[in-house]
């Protein structure tokens, strides 16, 4: 299959719409990362996403819509909490897990009785949904387990020959996937951290948002992934990544003691010049927003540079930084050294 990469025009949006209507895949930009879209109601089309990514079938996908009226048939009920959060954060990088409706394919939900839905704010996604009339399932447009792509070029590296069209809408603004919150149970539960934070949701809901243990720890044996991104190793470059938790001085000393060929550092802005090994910076210290924006690009750059071992500076674990830590600890397969 020849993969076309096209700039965003009326013609390319119309082509994307036709492909989705006919059960094909399209990769396109969202405000979080680039995604692979297929009609969420068409099980055969959605199955092609799993094939293109090499993604395990028990990993559910998120359905993307462009208006509240599209929830009909996709969810069986819109809880009060969901309405409050939608009013505050939609369109935007927030996915809500709600009771599944009759029209969503079993394949999209990985057989669960719930479905994750979000209303993206990116104008390209909104235009494609409007032109096609298709609510689409879409995970990130990477090969399963690799860092998510935040531009069309990185999407092509992973997806060339695996789908017919990539729409090039420039860099994604956020850089990590959407926040996922379950609004179905007794309490709202954060399943995957992102740009919309636990604290922001609590301010809107007026109640505590519980944090799933799977955000910062491995899923337990036999535990079901209720959201994308809960798997053990994910977002990973080829190198072996270890997170070092501690001050910059302690980090520099550890890296100095372990410096050899193939060792790289993943550090914060302004720190690379002070290290004895080649380094890539991924945002400002204490600033989850810039770290989120640069993390996946930095992990992909480590691959391009042939890094074999990577020692990563540890982000904080609150606000947007929780999302960065969540992605990085999976890229490191939970290897963390406290200095």
Structure description:
By secondary structure, this protein is α/β, with parallel strands linked by helices. The chain is 29% helix and 19% strand. It contains 9 helices and 16 strands. It has helices spanning 10-21, 43-53, 80-89, 123-132, 152-159, 198-205, 248-257, 288-304, 321-331; strands at residues 4-7, 26-29, 34-39, 62-64, 94-99, 114-118, 136-137, 165-168, 179-182, 189-192, 210-211, 240-245, 263-267, 279-281, 309-313, 336-338. Strands 1-8-2-3-7-4-6-5-9-10-11 form an 11-stranded mixed sheet, sandwiched between helices. A 5-stranded parallel sheet has the order 14-13-15-12-16, with helices on both faces. Helix 1 packs across helix 4 (123-132) and helix 8 packs parallel to helix 9 (321-331). It is globular. 51% of the residues are buried. The mean pLDDT is 94.
Which structural class fits the helix and strand makeup?
Answer: alpha/beta
Strand arrangement, major sheet = 1-8-2-3-7-4-6-5-9-10-11
Q: How many helix segments?
A: 9
Binned strand content: 15-25%
Helix and strand pattern: EHEEHEHEEHEHEEEHEEHEEHEHE
Backbone shape: globular
């Amino acid at each position: 299959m020849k993969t076309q990469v096209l700039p965003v025009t009326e013609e390319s949006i119309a082509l994307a719409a036709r492909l989705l209507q006919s059960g094909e895949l399209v990769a396109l930009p969202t405000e979080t990362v680039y995604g692979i879209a297929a009609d969420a109601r068409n099980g055969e089309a959605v199955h092609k996403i799993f094939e293109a990514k090499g993604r395990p079938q028990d990993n559910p996908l998120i359905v993307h819509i462009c208006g509240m009226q599209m929830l009909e048939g996709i969810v069986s009920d819109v809880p009060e909490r969901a309405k409050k959060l939608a009013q505050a954060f939609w369109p935007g990088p927030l996915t809500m897990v709600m009771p599944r409706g009759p029209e969503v394919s079993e394949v999209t939900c990985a057989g669960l009785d719930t479905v994750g839905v979000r209303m993206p704010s990116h104008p390209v996604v909104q235009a494609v949904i409007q032109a096609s009339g298709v609510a689409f399932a879409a995970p990130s447009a990477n090969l399963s387990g690799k860092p998510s792509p935040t531009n069309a070029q990185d999407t092509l590296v992973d997806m060339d020959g695996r789908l017919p069209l990539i729409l090039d809408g420039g860099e994604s603004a956020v850089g990590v996937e959407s926040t996922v919150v379950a609004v179905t149970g007794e309490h709202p539960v954060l399943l995957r951290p992102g740009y919309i934070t636990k604290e922001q949701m609590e301010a809107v809901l007026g109640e505590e948002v519980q944090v799933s243990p799977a955000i910062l720890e491995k899923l337990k044996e036999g535990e079901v992934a209720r959201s994308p991104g809960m798997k053990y190793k994910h977002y990973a470059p080829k190198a072996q990544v270890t997170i070092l938790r501690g001050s910059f001085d302690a980090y520099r000393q550890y890296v100095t003691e372990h410096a050899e060929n193939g060792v790289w550092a993943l550090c914060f802005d302004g720190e690379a010049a002070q290290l004895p090994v080649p380094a890539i910076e991924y945002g400002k210290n204490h600033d989850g927003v810039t770290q989120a924006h640069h993390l996946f690009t930095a992990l992909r750059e480590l691959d391009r540079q042939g890094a074999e071992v990577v020692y990563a500076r540890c982000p904080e674990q609150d606000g947007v930084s929780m999302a960065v830590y969540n992605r990085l600890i999976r890229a490191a397969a939970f290897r963390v050294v406290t200095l």
